[in-house]
Amino acid sequence: MLKDVYEKFANDYDEFGSIEDYLGSEKTFFKVLFAENNVQTVLDCACGTGQHLLMLDELGLSVCGSDYSAAMLKAAAVNLEKYGKKIPLQQCDFRQLQEAYTEKFDAVVCLTTSLPHMHTDEDLLRALKSMRDRLNTKGLLVLTQGTTHYTLSLPPIEVVVNRNDFSRIFVKENDSQFQTVHVLDLFHSQERNEQNQYDIKYKIILDDDYRRLLEEAGFHNIQIYGDYDKSPYDKQSRRLIVVAQ
């Protein structure tokens, strides 16, 4: 059984800000991609706090959300209620989506470095096959992450949020297979003065790894981009975006 590494982090996760602020033209990317492929139904199988569910709903899509973390789903429910949205949520391990869903979707998305929580090829393949099994014929799988050849070469300390009342710092440790991100949250206001640390371990999966794993899982027509403008992925890309059928 997976440990819920977001059990405590979930309450403050959205201190990152809105996804429009830190993911740029992602919404336009999905609008164009899904229109080109006649996508109407979408499963976000690592929906976290629900920000992507809201974005996809705004595009007029029929959306469902699942996540392994009960804490993240609780945060998602609060966010959806805030906007008056009744998007169905399920707690589910994305290696076993068939346990929560009998229906199939035009697209399955697994975004923001979620798949690399799987640390073995066996688990990665189980997850990818589970996602493929929930797709309609010619359905799309979309994966996104911020781990790239370029970002792995950057200095290990990164200030990702710096406001008057709050700072979030990443301290990254890499080896040949894994990246551990130590998240340091510093609240420094009269209302809240505390420090929290969360440690998240990701498997390093890059473009060639994705091609190999996706082909083995039964996908084809695999496209790998370096940004939401669909520029090809290369060693200078700051994002890694996979689209496969």
UniProtKB/TrEMBL annotation:
Pfam families: Methyltransf_25. Signal peptide: none annotated. It is an enzyme of class 2 (transferase). Residues 42-139 form the Methyltransferase domain. SUPFAM superfamilies: S-adenosyl-L-methionine-dependent methyltransferases. One of its GO terms (molecular function) is glycine binding. GO terms for cellular component: cytosol. Its EC number is 2.1.1.156. Keywords: Methyltransferase, S-adenosyl-L-methionine, Transferase. The keyword Methyltransferase applies. It comes from the Bacteria. One of its GO terms (biological process) is sarcosine metabolic process. This is Glycine/sarcosine N-methyltransferase. It comes from Anaerostipes caccae.
